[in-house]
Design goal:
Blueprint: H1 4-12, H2 27-32, H3 39-70, H4 74-87, H5 91-111, H6 115-127
Helix pairs in contact: 3-4, 5-6
């Protein structure tokens, strides 16, 4: 198996090391505070995540990022990263998103070498705190 299907399966595998399960965007805190106690509460939480976060921010940002990466328009990609990072309400969320992104690009670059990914890694590493 090769090509786009294998790449999609790699990305969707729960063992793919991007840390998505390590960052709940506040679900643990909401559960601990008693705000999410029932399956209906969890459904409401997930609905908001999908509608508001993925549907209104992350999904459109991913489309814009892909277009900028494909060009390659590094200035537009960096500006988009700055904008999306600024829209995250908590510093912990901003840090976790940056860490997940760096892990994703690092791993993806190892699986599917591409000069554009190397350049993207250089840009991402430059954003890491010293």
């Amino acid at each position: 198996m090769t090509g786009p299907l294998l790449a999609l399966l790699h990305l969707c595998d729960s063992l793919f090391p991007i840390g998505g399960f390590g960052y709940s965007d506040g679900l643990e805190a909401a559960t601990a505070a008693g705000l999410v106690e029932t399956p209906a509460d969890l459904q409401a939480w997930l609905d908001v995540c999908l509608d508001e976060v993925v549907g209104r921010m992350d999904g459109p940002a991913a489309l814009r990022a892909w277009a900028a990466f494909d060009q390659p328009d590094w200035q537009a990609l960096c500006a988009l990263d700055d904008e999306i990072t600024a829209m995250r309400p908590a510093s912990a969320t901003r840090r976790s998103n940056r860490a997940m992104g760096l892990r994703l690009v690092t791993t993806w670059s190892a699986l599917y070498p591409d000069g554009r990914l190397e350049h993207l890694l250089d840009l991402a590493r430059a954003l890491q705190p010293a």
